[in-house]
């Protein structure tokens, strides 16, 4: 899709683009925020055991663990 410079469009062209965008948005299915939050919470809680950010990386699987220490005398 080509890039459109909005500054070069006439007011009519801008209005047509806005109406087309609103027509697309009105067709979207709306969900209650409370329902979405519940589903996200349930999803997170169901996968918490597999979540690396919560559980951490085991030492044997961590590719960034230090191989050995550095001693400065």
From TrEMBL:
Q: Which GO terms describe its molecular function?
A: G-protein beta-subunit binding
Tell me where it resides.
Answer: Cell membrane
- Which PROSITE patterns is this protein grouped with? G_PROTEIN_GAMMA
Q: Which residues cross the membrane?
A: none
Return the GO cellular component terms, semicolon-separated.
Answer: heterotrimeric G-protein complex
Q: Which InterPro entries match?
A: G-protein_gamma, G-protein_gamma-like_dom, GGL_sf
Keyword terms of this UniProt record: Cell membrane, Lipoprotein, Membrane, Methylation, Prenylation, Transducer
Q: How does it sit in the membrane?
A: Lipid-anchor
Q: Which GO terms describe its biological process?
A: G protein-coupled receptor signaling pathway
Residue ranges occupied by any G protein gamma domain in the UniProt entry: 5-73
Superkingdom of origin? Eukaryota
Cite the Pfam families for this sequence. G-gamma
Q: Which family does it belong to?
A: Belongs to the G protein gamma family.
Instruction: Describe the subunit structure.
Output: G proteins are composed of 3 units; alpha, beta and gamma.
> What is its biological role?
Guanine nucleotide-binding proteins (G proteins) are involved as a modulator or transducer in various transmembrane signaling systems. The beta and gamma chains are required for the GTPase activity, for replacement of GDP by GTP, and for G protein-effector interaction.
**Protein name as catalogued:** Guanine nucleotide-binding protein subunit gamma
Species per Swiss-Prot/TrEMBL record: Pundamilia nyererei
Taxonomic lineage: Eukaryota, Metazoa, Chordata, Craniata, Vertebrata
